[in-house]
Design brief:
The chain is mostly helical. It has 4 helices and no strands. The longest helix has 23 residues.
């Protein structure tokens, strides 16, 4: 149970990091909540995926794969948002995986 709570905290922090610039830009509240929940869920998933690769690479792969459906939705409305979404997903995915490997194992 302790590991799940740690993973939840990691996801919440990642979600707050992702949403902060969105709030500053005054983006839609639904988009902000969606991004926050996305990272809370990934915080609960990424640390518990056991692939025989380095944690940073696991986080990068899962972070980028998980953002693809969101990018498909965003593409017709705002093509310029795809690059920041990719960058944030890479950085946060790596962060969640590395922090998870340190605190969860």
């Amino acid at each position: 149970m302790e590991k799940i709570l740690i993973a939840l905290c990691i996801g919440i922090v990642a979600g707050l990091i992702d949403v902060t610039p969105m709030i500053i830009q005054k983006l839609d509240k639904t988009a902000c909540w969606s991004a926050f929940v996305h990272w809370v869920v990934l915080g609960l998933i990424i640390p518990f995926v056991h692939w025989d690769i380095q944690p940073w690479l696991k986080g990068l792969i899962i972070g980028e794969l998980s953002v693809l459906p969101i990018m498909i939705i965003v593409l017709p409305k705002d093509k310029k948002a795809l690059i920041p979404m990719s960058i944030f997903s890479a950085i946060l995915g790596i962060g969640v995986a590395v922090v998870g490997s340190v605190f969860i194992g």
